[in-house]
Design goal:
The protein is mostly helical. Helices cover 65% and strands 3% of the residues. It has 2 domains: 3-75, no CATH class; 94-380, no CATH class. A hairpin with an 8-residue loop joins β1 (111-115) and β2 (124-128). α9 packs antiparallel against α18, α13 (265-278) runs antiparallel to α15 (294-304) and α13 packs across α17 (323-346). The protein starts with a helix and ends in a 7-residue tail after the last helix.
Length: 387
């Protein structure tokens, strides 16, 4: 039976069992009926009928739905990476309240920071919307009991981009502790995946590459979470940022230490930049409006094997495949790489981050913060000037 049809029939049956209870659910949990919010339907249904209504007939129907959702998910190839198991979703709709609070508290005018550019004739400017200390502390107090990686990583990012690394590390540590083990409850949460991607992106910037074994683990976590987010999110901004951030880590020199030796990271970069531009309509608009034009980045690297145009033939001359074939094949290969990382980590093999690894990492960052703050700040923020 098709999942959509099954859900419709289940809702009709729940309504026929107890119309008043169903109407109260529909009113209390209306958000799970909104487009793009369907992942909250099962956890909200189960929590409401199990803890509030106590109707065994309804609970049995909902449990059966959960089994069907799970079976539908695991029937897909590489489902751990490419799909959300809606039977394992959590109700983290409170994150929407947090996002609104932050948006309402942000300054109306952004601050602009020039970033060190790899180009000689082209500058890069980052716009950041500030938030007052009073407003941020009020938000932190309001959500102090919500241990969620999206909220923790977002607060950490605010502190880090304000140059307050010590304060940011406190929240980053709490987020990392939620995300390193498998299974974890955020693996099938869209906000959880976004928070995980933000957490490991910051940790990857902070971790010195000289600590190669630890760096490889953080890289694998970041790549894995970014890939699942790109494959499963219904949020256009999340999807765009997932491809942009994955492109940035596959083009880094350190990628060759983690990406399988048989895979050319350059070709992954070409594919990711293409999808950063074309993954959805918002992404295409943002890619052009921001001046990054990821489609041109992708084509330039394909034609010149470099971010800068030159006189070499690039991959046009060295590979028999067409540009489109490379983009498509590497897009699928990225899922396989992420799945291999997932399998290694979930089995607690070489890429698994232990509690000792987390403690070691944060002690090392704290030490560098005290002894070599400017170097850490440059690696993470890369601003031309600092206040």
């Amino acid at each position: 039976m098709l999942i959509g049809k099954h859900i419709k029939e289940l809702l009709e049956e729940l309504q026929s069992l107890d119309n008043d209870a169903f109407e109260k659910f529909a009113s209390r949990c209306s958000i799970c009926f909104q487009k793009g919010k369907e992942n909250w339907l099962f956890p909200m249904l189960f929590e409401y009928y199990y803890n509030t209504v106590h109707d065994e007939r309804a609970i049995k129907l909902i449990v059966e739905l959960g089994k069907n959702l799970h079976n539908d998910c695991i029937s897909k190839p590489f489902f751990e990476i490419t799909h959300i198991d809606r039977s394992l979703c959590i109700d983290d709709s409170f994150v929407e309240d947090y996002v609104k609070c932050v948006q309402d508290a942000e300054n109306k005018q952004p601050e602009f920071h020039d970033i060190n550019s790899p180009w000689k004739t082209r500058g890069i400017t980052l716009s950041l919307y500030g938030i007052s200390s009073f407003s941020l502390n009020s938000i932190i107090f309001k959500f102090k009991d919500k241990e969620h990686p999206y909220i923790l990583a977002d607060i950490a990012g605010m502190y880090v981009y304000a140059g307050k690394f010590s304060e940011g590390l406190f929240y980053l540590y709490r987020s990392a502790k939620l995300l390193t083990s498998f299974p974890n409850r955020y693996w099938n949460s869209e906000y959880g995946l976004a928070g995980a991607a933000n957490t490991f992106r910051l940790l990857l910037l902070m971790c010195p590459t000289v600590m190669l074994d630890l760096f490889k683990k953080i890289y694998a976590y970041d790549y894995m979470y970014l890939t699942k987010l790109a494959c499963t999110t219904r949020d256009e901004v999340f999807q765009y940022e997932a491809y942009v951030n994955r492109a940035s880590i596959v083009i880094s020199p350190s990628a060759r230490y983690v990406i399988p030796a048989t895979v050319n990271p350059d070709l992954l970069y070409i594919s990711d930049c293409y999808y950063a531009h074309f993954c959805n309509s918002w992404a295409e608009s943002m890619s052009l409006a921001s001046g990054w034009n990821y489609y041109m980045k992708s084509l330039t690297f394909y034609q010149h094997s470099s971010i800068r145009p030159n006189y070499t033939g690039g991959y046009v001359d060295s590979i028999d495949e067409t540009y489109g074939e490379i983009v498509s094949r590497k897009h699928e290969q990225a899922k396989v790489i992420a799945f291999d990382f997932y399998r290694n980590i979930s089995q607690q093999n070489s890429l698994y981050l232990t509690d000792d690894d987390i403690e070691k990492l944060f002690k090392m960052i704290q030490c560098e913060l005290k002894r070599n703050y400017k170097s850490l700040r440059k690696r993470v923020l890369n601003f031309k000037k600092y206040k």
